[in-house]
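Closing statement on the tryptophanyl-5'AMP sub-project.
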Amino acid sequence: MARIFSGVKPTGHLTLGNYLGAVRRWVEVDQHRAEALFSVVDLHALTVEHDPARVRRLSRQAATLLLAAGLDPERCTLFAQSHVDEHARLSYVLECTATDGELRRMIQYKEKGARARAAGESVRLSLLTYPVLMAADILAYRTDEVPVGEDQTQHVELARDLAVRFNQRYGQTFTVPRATRPAVAARVMDLQDPMSKMGKSHESGAGIVYLLDEADVVRRKVMRAVTDSGREVSYDREGSPGVANLLDILAACSGGNPEELAGVYESYGSLKRDAAEAVVELLRPVRERHAELAADPGYVDEVLREGAARARAVARPVVDQAYRAIGLLEAV
Ligand code: TYM
């Protein structure tokens, strides 16, 4: 059976982008067809300025939301990255496999680093090594497939490169993973700024739909989405990115095709109304289930505890083998 690994970083509240780009497939497809592991990657949340209490709160909320969205602990393994030491252990060995040049070329490092410098903040070393830790997350489980949104493609490519390089130098150790992406909505854009990705921590929340937004808030955000000055509803990601984004969102929610949907609408207003209702209906059960689960933090703790034990059992022998292969003394 194929093995799947993916994760979500608790740097902000989960968004519609996270859901349509990744989480929904984990729930509807991946956990049913493969040995699937999903992680709240809390170590990754420490790579930028952070508030410890907030990261802890968001980590718990992310785990609760993943369960609310439908991850089933009987079918998959859900755990917190920091509960499984193997990620950090393997990350160091992969730092000895990667070069600083390839890490400096990573788009996310360049963008986030530039943003931090512009704000007068220092750039944490861990922001540079971020993709190495992510490669460790993936390779520690001999993962075949990594279901992610489009923005993670370059990082998964690095994980592939590191796996191949390590295997060639030190002997067959890792599976070479591949990224899988959803057919539509692999890159959900910000509703106010449709040239940028809908991200957890975009400055104002006005263009971001959060999974826990109330129905009326979702409606308001979608109805106020920036479109363009054209009249016709057409699917043109370059020329009309705001409208294309709404068509992608509607298609992803309703199971349709964005090009075909474009032909159905005569006005931006009716497209927005239908997109808003489709998102509200999609998120309603997630929000309701989240409220129930949030009332029982003991359950979430238990899921994470069992998940970490299962994850550790898979990763431990792989990382031990990597340690031996690269030349470290066996612990006796
Ligand atoms: P993160 O937390 O930013 O996002 C989690 C998942 O959601 C997808 N995603 C989107 N998809 C479509 N449109 C969007 N606007 C959008 N925003 C986010 C992301 O592609 C991702 O699949 N580095 C990762 C976390 C990570 C990871 C891993 C993922 C750490 N280790 C190992 C896979 C395997 C990240 O920051 O995701």
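Residues 5-9, 17-18, 21-22, 41, 44, 134, 137-138, 146, 148-149, 151-152, 155, 186-188, 197-199 surround tryptophanyl-5'AMP (CB under 6 Å). With this model delivered, the sub-project is considered complete and its resources will be redirected to Aim 3.
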